[in-house]
């Protein structure tokens, strides 16, 4: 049986298992319950220096149940799908719940918010790739990088991953839903050397459907080209200068935004955007939105991890913070309603501008292009931002030389307010889509 039939034929079985979990929870005295079951199938092949390094076949499965006795909560999980294991798992959750402290915000998401429609979002495209073909693809990818230039002297290898999963969720409101999904990727990283300078860089491609992946030779070539451009990197003196965050790096700035407007950070008073709902935090041209129902999207879902309907919405509109990111628990803690974001945001995007990366560099004139960051120097309470970085120094809108061993510093609130432009060079390989960001001057600490 191929993977398509193997998973889709099992959806009914997993839905029945969820129903059994919920029924068992009720029989053991729980006033409410929710349960999830998942199965995953995967293949991972890694090659390095023209040789096969690893071949991994994975088959994972698991189930989890959360029960409520009023506002007391208990959770348990197992990978054993037998009837006895289901009973024991529910019993373990119930035993925990009976001895926990009451939390008035604990409980299922509101019944009125449950998804009533479950559209097909085109998330499942299994790739019945044979191991020999996966090896050949990895070797082609790495060979393309290694043969690009004699200065490519070593390799961290190329890796092909193919993953298919099936998740089913249900709760005692009567909601039950599930869907299969797929995710395939190919990556390559190589090392280059020129004199005393040694650098590494990488490239990767990811998609729901194998036919949408970049060609193996192109992935390797880009990894090699990116490595070569970094050779001869130097340090620069400490200064203030405008900064362009290349699209792949700008993704992390949007992650920081979402972290700051997430319910858990807000009700714990650990966010620099506390009490900013309805306030201007970006320039007027900025719109940040999510579309969980995007067909084929890498993080699309018809309902969130609590069964709540997902919907397209703006978090930022005309620069104003329009919505927090809330599941049911954090919403209750804040006296608000779930935004359908239990489990996170899905297909988040910032409205792109009209300039490509070269255009942004021309707009900046003189400053720093950041292409890599290291460390996690972000204080989410104050917004203070300080991270190690590497990239390129730009003058007259043109890249002059690569730079390394520097630190960029600022404050996220000021960085958001000082966003001058967003590029149209969108990074689309994850759950967040953005072009490059041109920011007002930041502190660049070097020599």
Protein architecture, described:
The chain has 447 residues and is an alpha+beta fold. Helix content is 24%, strand content 36%. It contains 10 helices and 17 strands. The strands form 3 sheets. A 6-stranded antiparallel β-sheet has the order 3-2-1-4-5-6. A 5-stranded mixed barrel has the order 7-12-13-14-17. A hairpin with a 2-residue loop joins strand 5 and strand 6. Helix 2 (11-27) crosses helix 3 and helix 4 (131-146) runs parallel beside helix 5 (216-229). The longest helix has 17 residues, at 11-27. The radius of gyration is 24 Å and the shape is globular. The model has no long low-confidence stretch (mean pLDDT 96).
How do you describe this structure in short?
This protein is of the alpha+beta class. The protein contains 10 helices and 17 strands. The longest helix is centred in the N-terminal third of the chain and has 17 residues, at 11-27.
Task: Provide keyphrases for this structure.
447 residues, alpha+beta, PmbA/TldD fold, 2 domains, six-stranded antiparallel beta sheet, 17 strands, globular
Number of domains: 2
Could you name the CATH class of the largest domain?
A: Alpha Beta
Strand content: 35-45%
| Overall shape | globular
Radius of gyration using CA atoms only:
24 Å
The CATH homologous superfamily name of the largest domain equals PmbA/TldD superfamily
Largest sheet: 6 strands, antiparallel
Mean pLDDT: 96
Alpha-carbon distance between the termini? 62 Å
Which bin fits the share of residues in helices? 10-25%
CATH fold-level assignment of the largest domain: PmbA/TldD fold
How do the SSEs run, as a string of H and E? HHEEEHHEEEHEHHEEEHEHEEEHEEE
């Amino acid at each position: 049986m191929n993977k398509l039939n193997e998973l889709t034929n099992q959806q009914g079985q997993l839905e029945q298992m969820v129903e059994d979990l919920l029924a068992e929870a009720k029989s053991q005295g729980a006033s409410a319950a929710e349960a999830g079951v998942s199965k995953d199938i995967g293949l991972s092949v890694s090659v390095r220096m023209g040789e096969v390094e690893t071949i991994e076949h994975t088959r994972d499965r698991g189930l989890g149940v959360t029960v409520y006795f009023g506002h007391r909560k208990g959770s348990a999980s197992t990978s054993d799908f037998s009837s006895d294991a289901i009973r024991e798992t529910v019993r373990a959750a119930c035993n925990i719940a009976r001895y926990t402290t009451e939390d008035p915000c604990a409980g299922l998401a509101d019944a009125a918010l449950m998804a009533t429609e479950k559209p097909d979002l085109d998330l499942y495209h299994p790739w019945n790739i044979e191991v020999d073909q996966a090896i050949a693809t990895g070797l082609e990818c790495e060979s393309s990088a290694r043969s690009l230039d004699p200065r490519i002297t070593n390799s961290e290898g190329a890796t092909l991953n193919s993953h298919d999963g099936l998740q089913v969720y249900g709760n005692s409101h009567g909601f039950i839903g599930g869907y299969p999904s797929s995710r395939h990727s190919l990556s390559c990283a190589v090392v280059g050397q020129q004199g005393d300078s040694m650098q590494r860089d990488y490239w990767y491609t990811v998609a729901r459907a194998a036919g949408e992946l970049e060609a193996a030779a192109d992935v390797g070539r880009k990894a090699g080209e990116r490595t070569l451009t970094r050779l001869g990197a130097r340090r620069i003196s400490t200064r203030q200068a405008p900064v362009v965050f290349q699209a792949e790096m700008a993704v992390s700035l949007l992650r920081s935004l979402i972290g700051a407007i997430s319910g858990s950070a807000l009700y714990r008073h650990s966010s620099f955007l506390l009490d900013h709902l309805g306030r201007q935090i970006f320039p007027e041209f900025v719109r940040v939105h999510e579309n969980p129902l995007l067909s084929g999207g890498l993080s699309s879902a018809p309902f969130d991890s609590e069964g709540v309907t997902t919907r397209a919405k703006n978090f930022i509109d005309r620069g104003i913070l329009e919505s927090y990111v809330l599941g049911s628990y954090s919403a209750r803690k804040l006296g608000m309603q779930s935004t359908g974001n239990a489990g996170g945001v899905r297909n988040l995007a910032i409205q792109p501008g009209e300039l490509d990366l070269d255009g942004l560099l021309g707009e900046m004139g003189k400053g720093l292009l950041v292409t890599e960051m290291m460390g996690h120097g972000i204080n989410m309470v104050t917004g203070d931002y300080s991270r190690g970085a590497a990239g390129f120094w730009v003058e007259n809108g043109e890249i002059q030389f690569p730079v390394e061993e520097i630190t960029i510093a600022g404050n996220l609130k000021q960085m958001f307010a000082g966003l001058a432009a967003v590029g149209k060079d969108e990074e689309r390989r994850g759950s967040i889509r953005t072009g490059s960001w041109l920011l007002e001057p930041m502190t660049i600490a070097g020599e």
